[in-house]
């Protein structure tokens, strides 16, 4: 059974248990996965992206360090992404999920009497929590959709991309934050982009990404547990990222912006590695042909979308 926790600052509830003994000796029990949820973390401001997860300041939440340990294994060590490009500005404002396996480790082996075969000392074991997978969810707003044929390093376009989709003056204007009617304050959460197959260029969406599972735990349903956990959480908390007029100060200005502020209506996006398209298709995501293909850190990517029901009666994932 999967255990879900809501630890956002420490991970004391998952510290290793005290050594225990068992008899007779037996093989370690299979790992039992459980998931930790991490809400957006303001204290990540001093995370040093030039250093590994185990060389960070003491105020970084342990669960986030665990997420980075998996990302470093998968993206930095396996796929060759530069360490300094793995952590980015979206990590601060994102929700993260980390999945752990409870692994039984032998500390001291059992000792048998060589003459009688009787147990002299039982085996001593300890159960530890090993981070084996992670996923993040980035709320809106987002930067413009990547350019077809674009080459991106650390989120920055390094070439001109495909001339088939040039940035016309109309497109550039569409990418600017839209001004709220009735005043001169701009709402930076309401950004227009060029339309694609599944996105009209304006509807707010959340973005899943940084899905990573350690090599030895792949093809065991771990990625699916993470994706379903994130989708279900977002369906249940579907208004959590919608901006509040009072928080933005429109009520103090006497402005009625009802219906003008962005509202999430169940749309998910991913920038999927091309070789992982079939993985995401299992969860209902569809490739957006109009977005084309681009490269992030030297890896080809495509856009994929999923719409889920939200609101009353929309809290379950098929």
TrEMBL record:
InterPro entries listed in its UniProt record: Acyl_CoA_acyltransferase, GNAT_dom
Domain N-acetyltransferase stretches: 204-309
Top-rank taxon: Eukaryota
Gene3D superfamilies recorded: 3.40.630.30
A Pfam family assignment: Acetyltransf_1
Polar residues bias (residue ranges): 1-15
Region (Disordered): 1-34
Name of the featured protein: N-acetyltransferase domain-containing protein
Species for this entry: Podospora pseudoanserina
């Amino acid at each position: 059974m999967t255990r879900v926790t809501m630890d956002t600052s420490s991970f004391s509830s998952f510290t290793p248990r005290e050594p225990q003994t068992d008899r007779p000796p037996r093989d370690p029990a299979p790992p039992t996965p459980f998931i930790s949820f991490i809400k957006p973390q303001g204290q990540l401001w001093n995370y040093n992206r030039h250093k590994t997860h185990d060389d960070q300041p003491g105020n970084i939440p342990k669960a986030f360090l665990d997420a980075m340990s998996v990302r470093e294994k998968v993206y930095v060590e396996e796929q060759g992404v530069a360490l300094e490009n793995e952590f980015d500005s979206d990590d601060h404002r994102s929700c993260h999920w980390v999945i752990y396996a409870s692994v039984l480790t032998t500390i001291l082996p059992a000792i048998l009497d060589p003459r009688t075969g009787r147990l002299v000392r039982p085996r001593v074991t300890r159960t530890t929590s090993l981070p084996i997978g992670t996923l993040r969810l980035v709320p809106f707003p987002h930067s413009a959709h990547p350019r077809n044929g674009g080459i991106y390093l650390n989120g920055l376009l390094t070439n001109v991309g495909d001339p088939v989709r040039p940035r016309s003056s109309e497109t550039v204007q569409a990418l600017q934050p839209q001004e709220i009617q009735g005043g001169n304050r701009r709402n930076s959460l309401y950004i227009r982009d060029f339309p694609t197959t599944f996105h009209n260029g304006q509807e707010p969406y959340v973005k899943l990404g940084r899905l990573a599972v350690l090599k030895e735990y792949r093809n065991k349903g771990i990625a699916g547990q993470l994706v379903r956990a994130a989708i279900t959480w977002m369906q249940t908390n579907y208004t959590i990222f919608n901006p509040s007029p009072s928080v933005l100060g429109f009520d103090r200005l006497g402005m009625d912006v009802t219906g003008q502020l962005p509202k999430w209506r169940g749309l998910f996006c991913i920038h999927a590695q091309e070789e992982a398209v079939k993985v995401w298709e299992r969860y209902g995501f569809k490739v957006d042909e109009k977005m084309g293909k681009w490269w992030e850190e030297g890896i080809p990517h495509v856009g994929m979308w999923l719409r889920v029901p939200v609101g009353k009666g929309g809290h379950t994932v098929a």
